[in-house]
Design goal:
mainly alpha, 2 domains, 5 helices, about 0% strand
Length: about 80
């Protein structure tokens, strides 16, 4: 079961975190995007993931772990 879960996650990360995999799809019809546009889409997708953990860590230091966890759970439940 653990091996199957690892293989599943590896496939998921391969599709989501390697933009070269999708380049052929986006360069074909109906998208007709260039390599720069595909790379820009990946930058837009991944750039917040480099900044938000820092901001979230500072935020949790200010309000505390328990309140932060409660707020995060409520936001996820609502969303």
């Amino acid at each position: 079961m653990l091996a199957a879960g690892c293989i599943f996650l590896m496939g998921s990360y391969y599709c989501y975190d390697i933009p070269a995999v999708a380049t052929d799809t986006f360069e074909a019809e109906p998208y007709n995007l260039g390599e720069e546009q595909v790379a820009l889409m990946y930058v837009i997708y991944s750039a917040p993931n480099t900044v938000l953990p820092l901001i979230g860590g500072i935020f949790l230091d200010k309000i505390g772990i328990r309140i932060g966890l409660l707020m995060f759970t409520v936001i996820l439940t609502i969303g």
